């Protein structure tokens, strides 16, 4: 989405800390929904072959 900017991010083994600039017209919950949905799609695309190894379980 345009008008969003990642200012700072730190990856931990099990989570990520991010400082993000979001336009004032967008709610935090809308932004998080977009971010979680997009990361789920990218993860599925990258690791789609694992469903053949481990069955058809969701990630």
Write the layout of secondary structure elements.
Elements lengths: L4 E7 L4 E6 L6 H20 L2 H5 L5
Antiparallel strand pairs: 1-2
- The total of helices stands at 2
SS-based class: alpha+beta
Radius of gyration: 15 Å
Shape category = elongated
Parts with pLDDT < 50 across at least 5 consecutive residues: none
Portion in beta strands: 15-25%
Largest sheet: number of strands, sense, barrel closure: 2 strands, antiparallel
Percentage of residues assigned to helices: 40-55%
Report the end-to-end length measured between terminal Cα atoms: 25 Å
Which strand order does the major sheet show? 1-2
The average pLDDT score comes to: 84
Secondary-structure element order, N to C: EEHH
Number of strands: 2
Protein architecture, described:
A hairpin with a 4-residue loop joins β1 and β2. This protein has two helices and two strands, in the order ββαα. The longest helix is centred in the middle third of the chain and has 20 residues, at 28-47. It has a domain at 24-59. It has a two-stranded antiparallel ribbon with strand order 1-2. Helices cover 42% and strands 22% of the residues. It has 59 residues and is of the alpha+beta class.
């Amino acid at each position: 989405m345009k008008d969003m900017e990642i200012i700072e991010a730190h990856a931990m083994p099990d989570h990520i800390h991010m400082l993000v600039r979001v336009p004032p017209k967008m709610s935090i919950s809308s932004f998080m929904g977009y971010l979680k949905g997009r990361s789920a799609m990218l993860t599925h695309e990258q690791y789609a072959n694992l469903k053949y190894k481990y069955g058809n379980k969701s990630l």
